[in-house]
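Protein modeling request. Please complete all fields; requests missing the sequence field cannot be processed.
Requester role: graduate student
Desired output: 3D structure, token encoding
Chains: 1
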Amino acid sequence: MKKTKAFTLIELLVVIAIIAVLMGILMPTLSRVRNQARGVVCKTNLKQWGSVWAMYFSDNNNKFIKRNNNTTRRGRWIDVMWNYYKSEDFRICPMASKPMNPTGTTAGGDDWGSITRAWGLLKPENDRPESTYGSYGINFWCYQPDQENLMDRDDSWYWKNPDVRGSANIPLFADCYFFCAAPENDDTIPKDMDEVFPNFRNGGSDNDSLASHNDSLNRFLIDRHQGSINALYLDFHVDDIRMKGIFRQKWGPHFDENKSLSSYSGYDEWIERYPEPK
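Delivered output (278 residues):
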């Protein structure tokens, strides 16, 4: 009777070892490709937002949203723009698709997001529906003040309308762990990415102040897309911004995009590991 040839134990172990080595080589590549694909989807979302913002500007004499911070807090983009898109799909970056607080929140605290989590869920308010959440935030200087000294800054701090010189270097909308941020040159930089989330937002000993609106550059300073964030600019083009490049954008009329990075309060070595802007 002819015997059937079978694998020996040693041969089987060699095959398993080869497969394990190949998996070790391929997995990082597959993960990188997957994240790159998610980055493409994120940019597509922002391009759709460009169309939404263009429609709003067309309907409102080419002016930004009027914003106040009194008891009604009227003018938040998440309230006003809901009437223009009615879909949550492209409010979510696929790298941060799950809300930080899936059961909902009343205000503050748990409605902050992170690198990999969306902000929200938010309570319903004004025209905003219940359970709103998202992964993008507006450049706060792209509002039209509807009160004197909005957020303790006079009108000269705000762009007011999109027809300004240098619009290709002015971000309107970008990856963000909150729904807005107002970068300033005296903002404090977190010590490192590990300390950004969640310590300073919820009373961390070293970074308490960074939850403030007056220290909000860090809301854009998130390594969400392999060392960068994606942004929609005032001229409606979409591009990625490297971590160091975040300091080189013309966020507001008073923002000095040429200020030395090392002169920022809290500047640390963790930023140095990132490449220079394109």
